[in-house]
Amino acid sequence: MDAVIIAAGYGSRLREISDSKPMTPVAGVPLLELGVRQAKAAGVDRVIVVTGHEAERLEAALPALAARTGIAVEAARVADWSKPNGWSVLAGAERTRGDYLLMMSDHVFSAPILSGLARQGGADRGVTLAVDRRTGDPLIDPDDATWVSRDQRGFIRAIGKTIPSYDAVDCGAFLCTAELAEAIRAAIAAGLAGSLSEGMQRLADHGRAATWEIGGAWWLDVDDPRAYALAEEQAPRFLPEIYAALN
Q1: Are strands 25-26 and 29-30 parallel, antiparallel or unpaired?
Q2: CA-to-CA distance for 164 and 123, rounded, in angstroms?
Q3: Please, what is the average pLDDT of the chain?
Q4: Is 240 domain-assigned?
Q5: I need a labelling partner for 227 at 20 to 30 A (CA). Which of 11, 27, 40, 219 fits?
Q6: HSE (CB half, 13 Å, CA atoms) of 166?
Q7: What local confidence, expressed as pLDDT, does residue 18 receive?
């Protein structure tokens, strides 16, 4: 299985700590390397990193990253990194070989999340999103979270940062089929900006967007200095298989 890691954005909220969010070290390990190692542990054998902002710098670091992690790591550059993140998904999806895990470079996950999500495919869905029912967890930034409203089957009714009611939060990890890229393209063709959430909503409207609950597993969106401090403190404890192997 492939994984696509979105690493194209500017990372403005973490700028005071690092000028490259994907290369920001968390307890000594760059965020992007954490993502690659987490994907490998979930059974992925090739990672496609979508680059944009400072693409040359990031792409130059990928061969050494592949050598350190023992997994193929390739770059797919998005034409305009200032566009919404769905355009990055399209750039990465073009390189995939069948179903793939989709991750954001600034999200970190304890081992059960990606390994569990990778087993959730089925003919009844075009995408499966990892969600957390702990919507009031202090680790979640309510001003930046993407919220999810689901039906009785656990399929998505609505998804977005400003939806009026919700029962879960998007964890930033997806098991995707080709339907997700098709939905993003259809949303763009309909005049929308091309965000990942727009593609997800289009699949939801057709009953093709499933969710999978992570239970009590740990995850964190490392998007600002507060979250970075939490990651520095907690990542070695919740990702012991990664940090133990590097020490």
Answers
A1: antiparallel
A2: 30
A3: 95
A4: no
A5: 40
A6: 21
A7: 80
Contact 42, 101 (CB under 8 A): yes
pLDDT digits (tens, 9 = 90+) for 94-143: 999 999 999 999 999 999 999 999 999 999 999 999 999 999 999 999 98
The total of other beta-carbon atoms located within 10 Å of residue 162's CB is 6
Query: How does pLDDT run across 142-188, given as a tens digit for each residue?
Result: 989 999 999 999 999 999 999 999 999 999 999 999 999 999 999 99
**Residue 64 burial (10 A CB sphere; 0-12, 13-18, 19+):** exposed
The answer to whether residue 54 scores a pLDDT higher than 80 is yes
Contact, 102 vs 26, CB < 8 A?
no
**What is the number of structural domains in the chain?**
1
**Boundaries of domain holding 216:** 2-235
- 206 CB burial (10 A radius; 0-12, 13-18, 19+): exposed
Q: Kindly report the CATH number assigned to the domain that includes residue 185.
A: 3.90.550.10
Structure tokens at 124: 């009844």
For residues 133 and 182, give the distance between their C-alpha atoms in angstroms, rounded to a whole number.
Answer: 28
Question: What is residue 18's DSSP assignment?
Answer: -
Distance of alpha carbon 202 from alpha carbon 160, whole angstroms: 12
Tokens for 246? 């590097």
Tokens of 42: 């979930």
The answer to whether the CB of 156 falls within 8 A of the CB of 126 is no
